[in-house]
């Protein structure tokens, strides 16, 4: 069980980090410091959301309901925006917008990958 | 200075919210484990020489089977649908008929609509067409012993499912010969449901490891197994689990059943011996009538073990909770470290 749980969290984190870093680059993020910030911010939020979903699935045997999913993702978006605020050299988008776009992309990447593999 | 304090408070609130989210599932959902119920195992003789039976455990109350269908030859999927229609014929009388050929042999036909409807419900989005199923002709499928993958004459059903913890299920199953002798012995005009003509061959046990993905595809996350009963029948019951997408192998020693629970298979499965596997050479009782509820377990043999599951569920919950809390704490440490690095090393500009 532990191995399955850790693998699930690891895969989820990997997908998120790769997709968000790639998306950030496409959105015009260029500074190494900013990329490091994106990486660390996701390290702070993704395992939190992942463990929440895994916990739900583990103890109920079902996928989390949409409202829990939405609440957790929104919490992650807000937390990330707060961490980005004042720290990013990137100025094209506001932190909350950037966070929202990056999270949306990584979520869609996750859905795509889990649906087909 | 005030601005700095405000920012610190915000950061603290964010961390607090994260910690709250982390602790929620452990506290609120610790007792929400649901024991397995309505599980099925179907067995299929692949071909006469191989003497292998593919087993998979599923729960028709759930939806999905996407992974199973994507990792399984289409011929086997057709076989699954035909077997399901055969075993649950009483549910599908509107789409099933019994006919008699010139030689007086009775056989079953399934309309293309009924077939595709059932295939669609078992394997959503698989696009299975009746026209691709062996035996299809003129808008219907003739179900005979020579259909897909050789005879559809061996079925395995679950007697008991016991959750052992750590995602491992212990399954006691029975093996039934459905088509005994000629087809007419199965599909009598007054006996569309084959239960009266089903005989128990033997039984066995194996362990299935649940290797779930966090999705709705719970059915497909049961492992696919190949039970080799060429050597020693199901007495040795070594479950060689087939590698597949989202499945993991289980070692032979893990799969071997405890000696006390090993049945005595005096009859070699698949050779036509009508025996209950208890060594007395007698026929056992037939399968009881199928449940008419669509999408639910139809044969009582396929259920069972619920009491055991619930009893063991207490220990399982406890074990899972401990592991979960350990991983949870590790996640908390990672999260706090990441936040700390951000706050300290990547200070605001």
Structure overview:
The complex is a heterodimer of chains A (117) and B (349). Chain A has one domain. Chain A has 4 helices and no strands. Chain A has helices at 2-26, 32-60, 66-84, 95-116. In chain A, helix 3 packs across helix 4 (95-116). Chain A is globular and about 45 Å long. By secondary structure, chain B is of the alpha+beta class. Chain B folds into 2 domains: 2-31 and 314-345; 39-304, no CATH class. Chain B has helices spanning 2-28, 66-70, 74-87, 112-122, 233-236, 252-255, 306-345; strands spanning 39-45, 52-59, 96-100, 106-111, 136-137, 140-143, 154-165, 168-177, 199-209, 224-228, 239-241. In chain B, helix 1 (2-28) packs antiparallel against helix 7 and helix 3 (74-87) crosses helix 4. The longest helix of chain B is centred in the C-terminal third of the chain and has 40 residues, at 306-345. The radius of gyration of chain B is 25 Å and the shape is elongated. Mean pLDDT of chain B is 51; it is low at 25-64, 146-152, 179-197 and 209-318. Classes of the chains: A mainly alpha (117), B alpha+beta (349). Chains A and B meet through helix 1, helix 2 and helix 3 of A and helix 1 and helix 7 of B.
């Amino acid at each position: 069980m532990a191995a399955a749980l850790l693998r699930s969290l690891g895969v989820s984190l990997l997908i998120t980090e790769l997709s968000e870093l790639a998306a950030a680059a496409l959105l015009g993020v260029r500074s190494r410091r900013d990329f490091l910030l994106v990486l660390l911010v996701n390290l702070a939020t993704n395992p939190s959301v992942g463990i929440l979903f895994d916990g739900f699935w583990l103890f109920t045997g079902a996928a989390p309901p949409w409202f829990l999913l939405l609440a957790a993702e929104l919490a992650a978006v807000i937390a990330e925006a707060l961490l980005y605020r004042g720290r990013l050299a990137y100025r094209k988008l506001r932190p909350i917008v950037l966070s929202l776009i990056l999270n949306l992309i990584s979520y869609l990447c996750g859905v795509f990958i889990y649906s087909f593999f | 200075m005030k601005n700095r304090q405000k920012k610190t408070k915000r950061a603290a609130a964010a961390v607090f919210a994260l910690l709250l989210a982390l602790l929620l599932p452990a506290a609120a959902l610790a007792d929400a484990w649901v024991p397995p119920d309505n599980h099925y195992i179907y067995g299929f003789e692949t071909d006469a020489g191989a003497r292998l039976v593919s087993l998979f455990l599923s729960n028709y109350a759930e939806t999905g089977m996407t992974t199973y269908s994507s990792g399984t030859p289409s011929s086997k999927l057709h076989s699954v649908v035909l077997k399901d229609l055969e075993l649950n014929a009483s549910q599908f009388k509107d789409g099933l008929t019994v006919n008699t050929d010139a030689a007086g042999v009775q056989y079953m036909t399934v309309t293309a609509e009924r077939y595709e409807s059932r295939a669609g419900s078992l394997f959503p989005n698989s696009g299975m067409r009746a026209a691709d199923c062996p035996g299809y002709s003129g808008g219907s499928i003739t179900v005979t012993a020579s259909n897909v993958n050789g005879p559809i004459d061996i079925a395995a059903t679950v007697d008991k499912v016991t959750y052992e913890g750590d995602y491992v299920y212990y399954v006691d199953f029975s093996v039934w010969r459905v088509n005994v002798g000629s087809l007419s012995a199965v599909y009598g005009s007054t006996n569309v449901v084959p239960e009266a003509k089903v005989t128990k061959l033997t039984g066995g046990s194996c362990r299935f490891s649940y290797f779930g993905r966090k999705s709705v595809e719970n059915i497909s996350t049961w492992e696919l197994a190949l039970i080799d009963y060429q050597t020693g029948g199901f007495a040795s019951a070594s479950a060689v689990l087939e590698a597949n997408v989202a499945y993991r192998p289980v070692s032979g020693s893990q799969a071997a059943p405890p000696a006390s629970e090993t049945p005595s298979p005096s009859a070699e499965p698949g050779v036509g011996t009508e025996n209950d596997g208890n060594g007395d050479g007698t026929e056992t009782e037939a399968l009881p009538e199928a449940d008419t509820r669509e999408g639910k377990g139809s044969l009582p043999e396929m259920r069972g073990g619920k009491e055991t599951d619930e009893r063991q569920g207490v220990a399982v919950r406890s074990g899972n909770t401990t592991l979960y809390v350990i991983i949870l704490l590790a996640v908390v440490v990672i999260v706090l470290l990441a936040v700390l690095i951000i706050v300290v090393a990547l200070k605001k500009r």
